[in-house]
Amino acid sequence: MDVLFGRNKKEQLEPVRARVTGKIPTWLQGTLLRNGPGMHTVGETSYNHWFDGLALLHSFTIRDGEVYYRSKYLRSDTYNANIEANRIVVSEFGTMAYPDPCKNIFSKAFSYLSHTIPDFTDNCLINIMKCGKDFYATTETNYIRKIDPQTLDTLEKIDYRKYVAVNLATAHPHYDSAGNVLNMGTSIVDKGKTKYVIFKIPATALDRTEGTNPLKHTEVLCSIHSRSLLNPSYYHSFGITENYIVFLEQPFKLDILKLATAYIRGVNWASCLTFHKEDKTYIHIIDQKTRKPVSTKFYTDPMVVFHHVNAYEEDGCLLFDVIAYEDSSLYQCFYLAHLKQNFKENSRVICVPTLKRFAVPLCVDKNAELGSNLIKLTSTTARALKEKDDQVYCQPELLCEDLELPQINYACNGKQYRYVFAAEIQRSPVPNKMMKYDILTKSSLTWEEEHCWPAEPLFVPTPGAKDEDDGIILSAVISSDPQKPPFLLILDAKSFAELARAYVDVDMHLDLHGLFIPDADWDRRRQAPSQEVQDRASDHHGASPT
To answer: In the chain, where are the structural domains located?
Structure first.
């Protein structure tokens, strides 16, 4: 499995033209921009965890039936420091680095706990965020990096802390109908409190001054106090409807004291995360109008959730769908030693990821009997059982298993919807199939091919589409067959039938998340490869499939 997890991936700085088989829809014009780890060894040092790898951006530009590919490492401060030293000198999630103590990010002497949080990495390897006309590579720290989506050049380094008091932030923001960015992060021991902070970045600067940074107008919508000052919940994403925000405070917790002393103790940050199987998962519902959580205390069984799928309101209830695990074993599986051993033994090493639907009543009848089900919807079997002390226990409906990296038609985000497009994982945490799941009929369609490992399926709607699944699916596919080059796969989202694929003779990596930028979102003249670039690309024509 060296092609998946072994060697470092090479950059493709100049666009290379792909060999296209099948027929790409004529309306599909734009760029698929993706992000993920591409380098796990620097000099004679290696990262321990797959999520630690240095960020490698790559893109597929689709224009008039042709596809051009390029890739480039994010020139983060982390990347530059490591390459200059020819070894890993900046710590990541699963790898503690020990550089020159005078330069060590943990070496500052602090007298108060609020000052012992380390300066985290700016290795933004998880996702791509759009903010106004700009694009940013993101991770789960307080740093994001502005990038040029055409050249993949790395631009400004942005510290969220200059605009909102958060030490950590999700790489999965939401976008409202006006294009404003909604995100949340954790403020660790700030003024004696640890809080979860929900904030909004306007799509454009409020004063409309050309060149003004919208981040300067970041606004805090709501803050929720952590149930524990020194043990806040880990979270990777959250849900949103037209009127509410859904946040799960789960028993997968970060130990602040361990984090503050990790360097001294010689352990990595991952060791500071612990799943507390005896604890509950608390469901926070925040009213966007009042900017306050609803007063009812909702909770469910202990679980770990990385990806919310969608949420919506129906007849006085809020429904939300998540991919849930019974424990935190997924993170452990992505240690590179575990990944390689898993592929060698071909055995299941993670608990089953399950698509679960929860339903919570937005108004609770105080006269309802204890133990009664407060959900009267016929569209779900999810229940909400009234308990003492204004508490409600939420029991989910189990929809489907073995799904991860869920995507929807984002036009349906926060609204009632029907289809989930996801990667399918079974024995290994690395996807080997893609699935379209129909929530209404509980049926599914799949795509798979031997020795192929598809990335997250991304839905792009047909212009003027009326049906929720009228569009195409894009996925970058790695092949472990040395005779078959990697390719961009294009599926019809309705039938899941293959429309086309674009083979590229490059060293492509497994990515995590990204987005599609339609030509309408930027100046087409700037994006279109020049004749000189096209000529160079033709000299590196993608290999034909074998």
So the answer is: 2-276+404-538
